[in-house]
Fold these 2 entries.
Entry 1:
Amino acid sequence: MKKFDKRLLMIPMVLITTVIVVVMLIRSTKAFEVLLDDKPIGIVESQAVFGNLVESIRKNAENRYGTEIMISNKIDYKEVYLPDNKRVINVYSPASLSELEQSVALKAKVFVINVDGKDIAIFRDKATAEGILERVKAPYVENAGDGVVTTFAENVSIIERVVASGELNMLSDPDEVYSSITKENEAIRKYVVQKGDTVSEIAEKLGVRQKDIEKANPDLNIDRISIGQELSLSVPRYLINIKQSIVKEYEDSVPYDVSYEESDELYKGNTEVKVEGVEGKKTVKAELISINGIPEETRVLSEVVTVEPKAAIVLKGTKPRPRTLAYGVFNWPSRGSITSRFGARWGEQHSGIDIAAPKGSPNKAADGGVVKFAGWSGNYGKLVIIDHENGYTTYYGHNNTIKVKVGQRVARGDVIGTVGETGRATGPHLHFEVRKNGVPVNPLKYIN
Ligand SMILES: [Zn+2]
């Protein structure tokens, strides 16, 4: 028997295979594999089937969240051929549908209020965000005069963002946002003025700037604080602060320079104006800036001097000064505490001040001059009067002993007597008077 040629078998095999392939191709169906973000997730009959499916998921979400929803996944389709008997019209069963809902990325457009790079509120629509910012600004805009520009001190913007739909559960409540913006963001610290306080000492003690205390208390005269007065230590600040600015032109004075000339006709330590200085005038253009209605800063934009100031010339004495010549300013005549001040006292007028000191301690001339009286004088007891030869006289009452005689010249600081309680006195003290042209004045205003 002739050996069977195996190669002959190849012919029918190829033929059969070809037939099978042709039959399969004819009887197979074209379908589409869906790629969600490049990941195959199933096969559908047509692109429209999947498109509708996704659209219905989107629509459901829109109904649920009440706002426009987008789907951000990348969706691709790949053509595939399926055998007829395994024809797949739609791979999506209700179970796989919910799976699809999970894998689809639902996004929504929102509007955030951003303050200096930080989102502080999130809204579905821009109008709500704008409305809140307008509401914050409104009271300032209403009260602003002509030319005032009202803005925010911070960098405030409304930014459109696309977020995962889940974040829509975090939408802000407009009223709550308004309250949080307009609530003072730190409790204003208060301070009650104590005895002996000055504003600069308070600032140093509490570690705040004096400038801030002044700003926080716009009606305060910083040289006149009183015990028990309550001071704010900081100006109120909010999540968003209102900045207002206006450019103004106004006239201001220009201070004059003072130059000095020596004069041997004047005593050393004395001065005399030779030429009066005259202030000049300038036109200032400045931007006045306030924060939350409180003046914050003045930025000078330009200055034009319209009237030049005229310098003053002051003569300075060089002539040797007699020891006993008055300076015109008084030193303390005694060391001690003031037990009685000038003015009304027990229905009487107290014509000087009382300085309590131990008996025998020195009473000193408050300024140079000539002793006009030294002796007993009724209620004053042992009294010394010094004429300062400049319209002023000083009185030293209740001396224990008197150390000067009438007509004697005394220098500032010379001992003229000792503290006692002669005359009408309830304890050792110096009764000290300053008289200007014979009329008692408050010594505390003249003592240096
Ligand atoms: Zn007195």
Note: The mean pLDDT is 89.
Entry 2:
Amino acid sequence: MELQLWHGRLNAKRFDDALSTIPVRVLRRMRSRLGHYAPAQRGQPAEIAISTRHVKRHGFEQALQTLLHEMVHQWQDEMKLPLGHGPDFREKARAVGITARAKRSVD
Ligand SMILES: [Zn+2]
């Protein structure tokens, strides 16, 4: 899947290359969520996962919006901010060009 490549592109274009390169995985077994960001834990590196079904059902453009959403969580984590959807999330989401619509049912 090209999403790993897009993580690099969006990092350069929208985040001024501020984010680390982390694995972006596309997972079949994600039932209710479109994507998630998992911080590093117990020796495992941080990663972003995107649901295969989400890509198939909503298309690549929407999947990129979800990737951007998860990248804002990555940014929060790397900035030592708490993960969540508070004011700092909303401000950064606007700055990187996430549309309001894409926020539905994304963790
Ligand atoms: Zn979220």
Note: DSSP finds four helices and three strands in the chain.
